[in-house]
Amino acid sequence: xxxxxxxxxxxxxxxxxxxxxxxxxxxxxxxxxxxxxxxxxxxxxxxxxxxxxxxxxxxxxxxxxxxxxxxxxxxxxxxxxxxxxxxxxxxxxxxxxxxxxxxxxxxxxxxxxxxxxxxxxxxxxxxxxxxxxxxxxxxxxxxxxxxxxxxxxxxxxxxxxxxxxxxxxxxxxxxxxxxxxxxxxxxxxxxxxxxxxxxxxxxxxxxxxxxxxxxxxxxxxxxxxxxxxxxxxxxxxxxxxxxxxxxxxxxxxxxxxxxxxxxxxxxxxxxxxxxxxxxxxxxxxxxxxxxxxxxxxxxxxxxxxxxxxxxxxxxxxxxxxxxxxxxxxxxxxxxxxxxxxxxxxx
Length: 346
Prior knowledge:
Distance between the termini: 40 Å
CATH superfamily of the largest domain: Response regulator
Strand order of the largest sheet: 2-1-3-4-5-11
Oligomer: single chain
Number of domains: 2
Structural class: alpha/beta
CATH architecture of the largest domain: 3-Layer(aba) Sandwich
Number of strands: 12
CATH topology of the largest domain: Rossmann fold
Mean pLDDT: 89
Low-confidence stretches: 1-37
């Protein structure tokens, strides 16, 4: 038997926000401190409940970060004997992903964790799932309506740009004529636009701006082609931000082929190979900005809490938050040892 669904809690917009007015009552004199764990205590969260069926669908793992997203989600589900995880085949076809979610609805799963290949395209089917009483946890790429998800887990794309720009300001901000270059990901994606906006805003704080910019596609081949184009157009560069460490393999190959080493480079996402480059001290790559590959794993954990009518033990609030935005820290040679053990392989 599946845990009962909270249909009344996830259909209306008011339910997304009304929980903010709730509070826990403190202990009073004479209260039984040996009472059963509450729904947001550590013991209550970890205790095995009724089995919940969670459907997970994401894009095709065509680069290391997405592969890490999928493996981390599966590994998280395996920690809990009360999770029955149903994983749809990864796809970059929005119509196929829509059909996968429709199958989850027909199967009456208890929750859906969805990293959409296109947030806008998957919004309607996510709303249908919500209307069917199935909580949807939106990961990484946002839907276009607040009615499409009970909870959303995001990396901080704007914050990534801010972190990259702030680091470059610290390194070359005392050079008013510094040439700053940028190799973005897929320009059509809002996440790429957010990263570039944050980068621009942070650079403005030290009087710099992006002088040369190209976009790639998160792949090694795309990164190499875009970097070759950029290097040919910019004979002198002081600092370069590459949005993605997977495409960064190709970017570094193009830099090596061109024999260029006059600039510092900052990566993005936080892959293990990028961190090893930083650790070596022999590369133009001096830093990378974390974009957590744990987002879907976090989504799995939140889905379990929602389906079992539990909450987050580190919050006083007695319901799972509507929105969780993860941090975008800078990894350098000074702290790489802290991040390398849990980094993903490109």
